[in-house]
DNA sequence: TATAGGACCC
């Protein structure tokens, strides 16, 4: 049998890897190998075990059993199984395999590979004790000088948040090489010390694509998306080879920034360089397009993908829900079930959000209960929050409260937040007080809870209490996050904060803001001076001219983008009511499409209307009045300009009686994604 | 066989 050692892979093994997709086919090959006695060869046996373990992670039991079918399994066979298990839902099993390896007596001893995989298991489990034990074994067996083991240990400690330990391993390496340096760069970035990671990266005498990718994904994961893109540009300038991993990180950064141009460029690059669109890369593309507001393109990518997994489906469904297309999201779920792709927890978050934006309470309930019954998935906080939102938004406040009280886990701030928001919409002061008290108990610095509560008091003209809330906030040092908007112009990302005057073109921006203000006035717009909406950003306004970050960004978009090019803005907070109204009017008077992504959804403004419909009121920290007036007394959208004037009238005269209309009246303004 | 390894909800 020794001749098998001379060839890279036995043809039968190649068969397992390439064409065996079903258990039945693998069984056939397996039987063949058993009958012919080929499995008695330890080398071939190891190849067989390894190929099943790594290519078919869902058949781990099968490959584990196959390990026993050779009396002298090699350490390679053990290592492959340990590796496969470290990535599985039950990583502990790799420890059992390690014990088995130690007990198997004769030739196989753990080697450096064994430990690089065991270390991954520890990182997966976040088990400090196991980590220390594994590190001790590494020392005992003398592998502490192996660069791969070293970098594995660095990775392990970083994953556990023990950067000090990672550092210690690193410092003991006399001459760190590319691999260990890269591991340390990753460790620093993962622990949030991305600046330090960069310093280390810059000090590296040589850098390969892996090192560059580590740095880019480090920035992307720390939320420093702009730096990630800068790094990517630098990487290109240096002529470093760009691969799939690079592009996934880049697309992820684009998603966070809403940098559609850069994302499109990356997509075109993939096409130009004929890079294979794998499931991961395709999913990253879908996510990018959806989060940049181009849901049509996201779906185009989705339909074009041959292979789709649960990530792909969840991503597309989440994108549809986020863009207000709840019915389409549910349709997609039906299709997903038809294709027999098993949903996971994340899929259900998308489904429930879809139900929420479409106002489908019963359907949402049905899906929520089917999670456990049909799919054995335990609901997590997000799902409970979605359910409270589902009941609350249509005014079924008691059911929402009931739902919270019956939660098998301690209700989190998000669940109470959804209720509080519903109380604001439906003017339930008493329940609103309860909800906000609960939130503050859980998160004493949750500014959203204070803002919403004060809005509820303001609705009932209880000004004393409004100022009480404001005082409490001051006393407790609760501050609102500064609003910040970004806009991409010619592939460059510009960032504006409230009252920002730092931009080099601020002079032009200011002139544009004044012009906008004038044109708004002449179109009949009355500036939002209603005391009803207590908006903390109000305090930060510097003059009569609205200085909210998205307005500055819009003004900049108007002066710097060609006519007809949609203005795309990404905001870190929710858009406020006034900006929402104003943006719609700007879209009309400047005949410009404006797309704003706020904290968790999209607003597509066109010809004076916004696509968000009722979805404007979503969870915590929102200004939910608009949708109620949006469709007032009509089956179809009013022009924004009318709405604003109407709203002004209504709000001035009848603050307490703005009606929330049944969701059935909401007509989609958007086109269908397909 | 290993270092980067990424995508869906947060």
TrEMBL record:
One of its GO terms (molecular function) is RNA binding. GO terms for biological process: RNA modification. InterPro entries: DYW_dom, E2_motif, E_motif, PPR_At4g14850-like_plant, PPR_rpt, TPR-like_helical_dom_sf. Pfam families: DYW_deaminase, E_motif, Eplus_motif, PPR, PPR_2. Keywords: Repeat. The keyword Repeat applies. PPR repeats lie at residues 74-108, 177-207, 208-242, 309-343. The keyword Repeat applies. Residues 524-614 form the DYW domain. PANTHER family: PENTATRICOPEPTIDE REPEAT-CONTAINING PROTEIN, TETRATRICOPEPTIDE-LIKE HELICAL DOMAIN SUPERFAMILY. Belongs to the PPR family. PCMP-H subfamily. This is DYW domain-containing protein. It comes from Rhododendron griersonianum.
